[in-house]
Amino acid sequence: MIRVSILVGSHGRGSNMRALATQIASDDRFTVHTVIGSKHEAPALETARNLVLPVSIVPFGQEYSDRLLHALQGSDWICLAGYMKLFPIEVLEVYKGRVLNIHPALLPKFGGRGMYGMNVHEAVIAAKESESGCTVHYVSEEYDEGATICQARCEVTPEDTAETLAEKVLRLEHETYFMALKKVALG
Ligand code: GRF
Question: What pLDDT tens digit does each residue of the chain (187 aa) get?
Fold first, then answer.
């Protein structure tokens, strides 16, 4: 059984966590080890509790890396889903090559510091791109810079706004994350 831990952010909706956990639940080769967030009241953790998933709270601050390592113990893969901080290097060293992230654009374009949430889709629209999509990539020491595992694309039409594009991309994200995880975890 491949044990997957999912790290969520404090403000995210948790829709990728939900999609991933639901798809994991329907595949008997995988199981959700734990869903980790930094605040009990994070909406994504509320969603995880509603799905009856194991939840761990690891607040940011002193000894964050050690406490995160403790919560992750027994995980085979780590999926970031709305996690906004740089992933701690001490944890990355232990799980090197087994930490994934999903980004709502076609990296290497529209990635890096400040490129999150609606900022990404607004930048794509402003640049008059004809396509966008999502990228699942390995996590490295820098924001959005690890090697790409999988991308899914959608058209950006002249009628698209940042909001309509965000909806299209989110739908793709939900279809892509587990596919990418299976690709690397099952070989
Ligand atoms: C997603 O757009 C993901 O690509 C990015 O953060 C967002 C999280 O959304 N890393 P949700 O909380 O999963 O709905």
Answer: 999 999 999 988 999 999 999 999 999 999 999 999 999 999 999 999 999 999 999 999 999 999 999 999 999 999 999 998 899 999 999 999 999 999 999 999 999 989 999 999 999 999 999 999 999 999 998 877 899 999 999 999 999 999 999 999 999 999 999 999 999 999 8
Q: Integer distance in angstroms from the first to the last C-alpha of the chain?
A: 15
Closest ligand 1 atom, CA of 9? 12
> Which atom belonging to ligand 1 lies closest to the Cα atom of 102?
4
**CA 157 to CA 155: how far, in whole Å?**
6
Write the residue with the smallest CA distance to atom 1 of ligand 1.
82
Active site residue 103: yes
